[in-house]
Amino acid sequence: MQWRALVLGLVLLRLGLHGVLWLVFGLGPSMGFYQRFPLSFGFQRLRNPDGPASPASGPVGRPGGLSGPSWLQPPGTGATQSPRKVPRRPEPGVCGPAHWGYVLGGRDHGPDEYEKRYSGAFPPQLRAQMRDLARGMFVFGYDNYMAHAFPQDELNPIHCRGRGPDRGDPSNLNINDVLGNYSLTLVDALDTLAVMGNSSEFQKAVKLVINTVSFDKDSTVQVFEATIRVLGSLLSAHRIITDSKQPFGDMTIKDYDNELLYMAHDLAVRLLPAFENTKTGIPYPRVNLKTGVPPDTNNETCTAGAGSLLVEFGILSRLLGDSTFEWVARRAVKALWNLRSNDTGLLGNVVNIQTGHWVGKQSGLGAGLDSFYEYLLKSYILFGEKEDLEMFNAAYQSIQNYLRRGREACNEGEGDPPLYVNVNMFSGQLMNTWIDSLQAFFPGLQVLIGDVEDAICLHAFYYAIWKRYGALPERYNWQLQAPDVLFYPLRPELVESTYLLYQATKNPFYLHVGMDILQSLEKYTKVKCGYATLHHVIDKSTEDRMESFFLSETCKYLYLLFDEDNPVHKSGTRYMFTTEGHIVSVDEHLRELPWKEFFSEEGGQDQGGKSVHRPKPHELKVINSSSNCNRVPDERRYSLPLKSIYMRQIDQMVGLI
Ligand code: DMJ
């Protein structure tokens, strides 16, 4: 009898203990925290291919924390990890919620904390308040630049001073690649003034640029940076001034005689030496604006730098009727394209322009490659050249085959949510376990081609990182769940994707995201005379630099996100954003080749002499910019863009919960 009582006592004791655990922690004895979620996250620490995972790798690295489980596996090795087929794209104009509501999920289990936080209307007053906050952010940065820095290139917002090229240290490429002693911030900000409807300041700024900016400078700049920030902005402003419809208000300039176009031409001519004496046709990365390619220059360039010039160079060529610029830019794209791996179809991130050898074999969506993909699609949107779309489609399929890890569907099925990793271009093998903040532009690009489901997932991943730090660290290690590189230079990529996803879905979730971003920018980066780079996303220390893209992109996308009635969103207008966020209207004029004889194969005739159909802008099967999606009626809103379980998973993966 005694042993029975002993056993009974032990059983009761154990049950009692379990009961206490339930009451105190809400956990059963055999039920871990993670098991409340239907999907497993592989809690064991996985080996980092770059070396042993170390808790010291990141200040908030969590020993024993979550790892990215199946993302380490090559695609096709698990039951749920087969390479994903690119989804069928929706017809143009039907990209709204009605056609992909299955992605968004409904209220299966009643409202929870995620639903409470993100669902529901975003009241019009709040939206107007956020729009004004975004405008105020731009104005504060711009006014301070004009007061303390102009005519220099950038504003040092902490010490209220200007900054130009670093003449004392020519090897300081971080500065000298971008700052050409040509009032960069003013030039880069021109079309944001127009988009915000500030005609008096736009007119003043344009006159200032015409009267004071010169490219006859002894500055060695990166061809890519000068192209996207300066050439692109001049062309965008020129088109705004000469637009007969003047949608942004009166942006005309009295006695305007195409000065900005001539300036753009002058700059582009100074960049042309980069395309000479290169055995592959891939341009040198840098030129001196006065003297051409420096004798001791580097022969290695990144793919994005050399292969993302076509939009600006193509516009210039078509406006001037001079094929030279488009021809050299297109030759560079094709040369790079021909160097892709025969096996994977992927490109690397750094190439030698004389030998064509890949110096950097890393293939990913971020630094070194980002805008290369973007400009294949955007060149097609703008110019309608079929070969650009074909290259883009092939590149996108290779990305799906080799870079994308995780389950096939956004928030359904088993396996981990999708993520795009960095791999070796030849083998497709994982090269490291970080993603960079530049990659956050990719969901926006996916919106343009109609792959909205995947865009939602990838965007959510980046937003979860933002929520954790109030910014995006330059590199985030998904295995260690910690930043690898800690600074945040006010980049626009997450805001850009947020804006484009909002235009595609009209889901108020993205307004909440935008508000969150705005508020953290105000809280952590606002300083005495502007907005400062975050030096360290954890301790929130700042650096005395405000890059020009903060005004041209970050503020613009934030403003447009909340400015529902902006002319950019009006039906009948079709704007595309360059990679620096400059608006370009998509119209017939840019579909014409004033130099047909130079492009006999590509420009209107096939090899057999038959005429080739060049699609008109309205025939495009891509969602270009936001305007195709505006037909989504306002009342068609979804409570949540992501099933809340999915959002929770993402938060968990970046270590937020
Ligand atoms: C911008 O200059 C452009 O968006 C470019 O394509 C890449 N990155 C910066 C901003 O982060």
Offer a few descriptive terms.
657 residues, mainly alpha, Glycosyltransferase, three-stranded antiparallel β-sheet, 20 helices, 41% helix, 8% strand, globular, binds 1-deoxymannojirimycin
Q: What's this, in brief?
A:
With 657 residues, the protein is mainly α. The protein has a single domain, classed as Glycosyltransferase. 41% of the residues lie in helices and 8% in strands.
Describe it for me?
By secondary structure, this protein is mostly helical. It has a single domain (138-593, 636-654), classed as Glycosyltransferase (Alpha/alpha barrel). The chain is built from 20 helices and 20 strands. The chain has helices spanning 2-25, 97-104, 113-118, 124-148, 173-176, 184-195, 199-212, 223-242, 259-271, 303-307, 310-320, 324-338, 370-383, 386-403, 442-449, 452-469, 493-505, 509-525, 549-562, 644-653, and strands at 154-156, 161-163, 220-222, 286-288, 300-302, 350-352, 358-360, 362-363, 404-405, 419-420, 423-424, 434-436, 475-477, 482-485, 526-527, 530-531, 533-534, 542-543, 575-577, 583-585. The strands form nine sheets. It has a three-stranded antiparallel β-sheet with strand order 5-6-7.
The profile of the biggest β sheet is: 3 strands, antiparallel
Indicate the proportion of strand residues. Answer: 5-15%
Which fold does the CATH topology refer to? Glycosyltransferase
In whole angstroms, the N-to-C terminal distance is: 50 Å
Strand order of the largest sheet: 5-6-7
Name the CATH class. Mainly Alpha
What's the total count of β strands?
A: 20
Our Rg estimate from Cα atoms comes to 26 Å
Give the % helix: 40-55%
Q: What is the residue-averaged pLDDT?
A: 82
| Total domains | 1
Q: Which secondary-structure class do the elements indicate?
A: mainly alpha
Second CATH tier, the architecture? Alpha/alpha barrel
User: In one word, what is the shape?
Assistant: globular
